[in-house]
């Protein structure tokens, strides 16, 4: 009898059950749980949005799976649940943002946009002949230097969060966010936290094209969609290594990673440069060549361990216009497999992307398969063949 009563109440969105429930809204929330998770993190430096957009089949074009959307120059939206429902609400948000600019001559606030979208959602919970939206949204942005982060759920209620997730495994991801979130996190720490949250229930390496990532920082107040090369399995190593620099208690998934590492924007000494190349089994360089070459580096980074020893290095050389060459990428064998190479490449590529003009050519000699491709590098073979000429003494 009780089941028959529930069936009667859940057929109409306009009818409350005797215990005050709207079953259709609850069913919509269940639809959201069936979607892959999306995560939002708010930090003093900005907002991070991340989404798991793995494909059901490798035949699906990765770019056709949309989980993150730009609502306005300063606002982004992540979704979980029915994709078609999400697209409808994204259109509502974009129209409202543009209307606000045309009507008032200023960008819409994040809170106003979130409440406008939830007002639209709420209409579909009280009129007959319609169903609730089977999607939840995370609306994040920065206005007047203030980061804001809101959730819009199928009931049409807006909630403001410091960090949240929607979609599958929400409870476990929320526990992870609550345990790891800190009020003074940098934007980069927020990126690390968001990506680590997406892997809470993922023991396998994540496809670089299976993660969507975007940020809105307080300085530019602009939505920036980060390319797939930034969203890759090696984020796990980078999360562990970066936290050792910012947390009092170093933590890592690797038992032998017991010391903090610091990334410095400076070249190594000549002596250490020669020692690192020798330890890694790289081709010999003369002291004269190194003494002349190191000061002419366009950009260089080193990694220093807790004892103050330089254990990694990498640099960029070239004309700083049409050609950039990445070289001397070395991590001492005793400190490998800690994500240090990824950290150095991140720094090099960040500098190149900020410095290089359009159509600049960036090259390197790859001695590891599948590593540099994560930053968008492509093999030149068989179209061309790498060659070298060594000046003999």
TrEMBL record:
A cellular component term, taken from the record's GO annotations: cytoplasm
Subcellular localization: Cytoplasm
GO-annotated biological processes: proteasomal protein catabolic process; ubiquitin-dependent protein catabolic process
Hydrolase listed as a keyword: yes
A Pfam match: Proteasome_A_N
Modulation of this protein's activity: The formation of the proteasomal ATPase PAN-20S proteasome complex, via the docking of the C-termini of PAN into the intersubunit pockets in the alpha-rings, triggers opening of the gate for substrate entry. Interconversion between the open-gate and close-gate conformations leads to a dynamic regulation of the 20S proteasome proteolysis activity.
Location (main, coarse): cytoplasm
InterPro entries named among the record's database cross-references: Acyl_CoA_acyltransferase, GNAT_dom, Ntn_hydrolases_N, Proteasome_alpha, Proteasome_alpha-type, Proteasome_asu_arc, Proteasome_asu_N, Proteasome_sua/b
Purpose: Component of the proteasome core, a large protease complex with broad specificity involved in protein degradation.
Family, as annotated: Belongs to the peptidase T1A family.
Name used for this protein in its record: Proteasome subunit alpha
Native source species: Halolamina pelagica
């Amino acid at each position: 009898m009780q089941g028959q009563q529930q069936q009667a109440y859940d057929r109409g969105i306009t009818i409350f059950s005797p215990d005050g429930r709207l079953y259709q809204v609850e069913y919509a929330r269940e639809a959201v749980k069936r979607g892959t998770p999306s995560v939002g993190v708010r930090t003093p430096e900005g907002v991070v949005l991340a989404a798991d957009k793995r494909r059901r089949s490798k035949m699906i074009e990765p770019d056709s799976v949309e989980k993150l959307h730009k609502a306005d120059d300063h606002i982004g939206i992540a979704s979980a649940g029915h994709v078609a429902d999400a697209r409808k609400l994204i259109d509502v948000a974009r129209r409202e943002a543009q209307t606000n600019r045309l009507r008032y001559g200023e960008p819409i606030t994040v809170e106003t946009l979130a409440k406008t979208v939830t007002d639209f959602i709420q209409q579909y919970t009280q009129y007959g002949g319609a169903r609730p939206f089977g999607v939840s949204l995370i609306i994040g942005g920065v206005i007047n230097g203030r980061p804001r982060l809101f959730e819009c759920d199928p009931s049409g209620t807006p909630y403001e969060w410091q960090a949240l997730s929607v979609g599958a495994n929400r409870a476990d991801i929320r526990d992870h966010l609550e345990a790891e979130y800190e009020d003074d996190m940098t934007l980069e720490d927020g990126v690390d936290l968001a990506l680590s949250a997406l892997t809470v229930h993922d023991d396998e390496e994540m496809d670089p094209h299976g993660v969507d990532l975007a940020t809105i920082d307080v300085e530019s107040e602009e939505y920036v969609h980060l390319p797939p090369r930034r969203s890759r399995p090696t984020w796990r190593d980078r999360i562990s290594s970066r936290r050792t620099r910012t947390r009092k208690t170093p933590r890592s998934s690797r038992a032998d990673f017991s010391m903090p590492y610091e990334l410095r924007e400076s070249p190594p000494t000549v002596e250490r440069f020669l020692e690192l190349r020798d330890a890694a089994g790289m081709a010999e360089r003369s002291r004269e060549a190194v003494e002349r070459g190191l000061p002419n580096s366009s950009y260089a980074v080193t990694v220093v361990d807790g004892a103050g020893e330089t254990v990694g290095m990498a640099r960029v050389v070239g004309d700083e216009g049409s050609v950039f060459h990445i070289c001397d990428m070395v991590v001492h064998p005793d400190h490998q497999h800690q994500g240090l190479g990824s950290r150095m490449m991140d720094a090099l590529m960040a500098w190149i992307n900020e410095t290089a003009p359009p159509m600049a050519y960036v090259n390197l000699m790859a001695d590891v398969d599948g590593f540099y491709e994560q930053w968008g590098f492509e093999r030149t073979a068989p179209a061309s063949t790498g060659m070298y000429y060594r000046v003999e003494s």
